[in-house]
Predict the 3D structure of the following.
Amino acid sequence: MTTDTPVFVGPPTRQISPWAWAHKNLFSNWLNTLLTIVSVLILGWVVIGLSTWIFSQAQWAVIRDNFRLFLVGRYPVQALWRVWASLGLIVAMGGISWGILARNIRLLDRRGLLLLGILAATVVIVLALLTDPRSIALSLGMLVLLVVLAFVGQRLGQAYPPLGTWLPLGWLVGFLIAYALVRGLIGGGQPVKLDDLSGLLLTLLTAIVSIVVSFPFGVLLALGRRSELPVVRWLSIAYIELVRGLPLVTILFAAQLLVPLVLPTGIRPERVMRAIVGLTLFSAAYLAENVRGGLQSVPRGQVEAAKALGLNPVLNTSLIVLPQALKAVIPTIVGQFISLFKDTSLLAIVGLTELLGMGQSILANPQYIGKNAEVYAFIGLIYWICCYAMSIASQRLEKQLGVTHR
Amino acid sequence: MDEQKIPLWRDDRFIKLAVQVLLVVAVVVVIAILANNVSVNFRRLGLNFGFSFLNNPASFGIGDTAIPYSPTDAFGKALLVGLINTLRVIVVGIILATLLGIVVGVARLSENWLVRQIATVYVEIFRNTPLLLQLFLIYTAGFLQLPPIEQALQLPGSTILSNQGLYLIWPIGSLRTGLSLAVLIGGATLGIVLWQRRLRVMELEGASGNGYQKALIGIGIVSLLALLLGLEWRTPQFENGTVTGGLHLSAEFGALLFGLVLYTAAFIAEAVRAGIQSVSQGQWEASRALGLHSSLAMRLVVFPQALRVMIPPLTSEFLNLAKNSSLAAGIAYSDFFQIAFTINNQTGRVLEVVLLIMITYLTINLLISLGMNWFNQRVQLKER
């Protein structure tokens, strides 16, 4: 007896004319029509106003003249290769991880290819206006590196699937190397002092170091908050709620002024180090709440089964509960990183020249007085691109990890 | 049968106790070391701990004062002015951000494609850039670029807008204003009570409710009179380089409020959208089957259910707004943090100032949480 494979036919795709689409989405009734007209008027006003400003009124020379200051601040020019090298390292890590995570799907569909093309074109156009040909070539090289390594990573991932488990460790090592490169601790030459870093470089460095350092504390606090030992639980709750009840700027202010006071006489950490301490203390409390969400999502049965197998509490937590919990909260942690990345802008208030502070110090230059709109719009664009890209990446990651299906 | 004794280091009860005791000892030791360092450093710097400096004259001016204040007043008074400024921004900000957030959140689910796109772009722009940057942009490139007071913009409703801020029409503040305000509040309370009673009578007894309706109209007329005539509105007048009368909102207040509202509304919009989407499609279909059109279905059926889901994220957004109001320090609005910062610079009393700031913000946050928890309990489903 033969069985025919049933042929599944999807619902027919209805082609609708542009006119029907407009009728359905824009002019279905009088209220809708009114809304459309009002929106078009507002949109027209905003777009015309903005484009007049961008193309004829704004003076973008301030951006072109200070482009390097925005990105790497007052980093020694002859040591800039260190920044490029660490950027290359991170791009390479990104490419390989992308490939490994996406090992079972096509890397670049038509939409991805289109996005990549737009990205490359934007990079060329923007950089052509702002910087020298060598930097353009290097930036494009980074893009090529990303895509090539993504394909390499895909092959590697297909040949050896467990590689995905090692990615977090790989990233940690990668960051350590990148950090040492930027600080000049490896590769010869003069080390760069922490306080001499500024611009986007400082923003990225403080955000990344804070989230990485706060991660173990956050996990411990989350475990502590769910502990059955009352002292551990209450101490964790007290810390988490205290920090979450305070504005970040207060914590940064306290870190700048109190850290020298609570340390033995004579030890004065660098300002950037104090800022990182503040950001880490802050971020640990929020991370703990995120991880706690993940811990709660692990079914009780897992813990009970592990107990039945004879695992002691420490092994139970580290081998059974945490791996499942942490996998579930990766997207939330990315979200927290995005908000920490934005929050580093508060360092400008306590007097550090990260990206926003650099903007302020450029505006304080008599030559560029009154160019606030141009400078802040440019900084806003950098932040927006970084945050938006990260949130898109996090959504894709969420899909690929299949977290939502649990 | 003699029971084998469990060794102490494998006894679960002992381990648990030991871990806790060790932790307490560790925390106490760390705190003691830090406290000792603080006292050594205090002695070295010739500082002593105490709050008596709050009675010393502040000797700095404050741009925005809601209560009378002069530089000869004490530091404590200056902090009070700052606290009132902070609370002013938080209360007005929460109300406006909620309204804007709900509008944008609903717009993100609009049937109209264009409205949906505009709302999405707004949310994505404001959520993905830092608030401090938005404040700088709004303050330095927005409010400070307005024309000077001599060429101020005259907006409808006798509003004057200049780079010194906004002048609004405002009641004069006499006894008559106070009395009218009391009439208005009383009228509103009575009106709500009568309205609810009218609905109940109409629903339960099938009565016409005409008597209640007449009473409500009467209250409405009295309130309208009190509002228009009793409050004694005073329009701002521009004379010899200064504006007299009316309510003055400084450019710094305006920029901070504007920035906080726009930023928080983007987050509230997302909470509202998630809340509405969490209401099942069947509710929409059922209300359409009952003959409600979409705005009524939203208002009467979907939104009240969405509210239950929305309140926890809304609470955390309100708390964020309260905490973010401390970014006033970036644009020189004299809020609590900014004034405490100034006092620290003048007196060098780091520890006391940090403690005061922490206690203040923790208290504000606690009050908001308590209020929202109370509201949350009221709207939750009452199951057996």
In short: Chain B has eleven helices and eight strands. Chain B touches chain A through 54 residues (CB under 8 Å). The two ends of chain B are 53 Å apart (CA to CA).
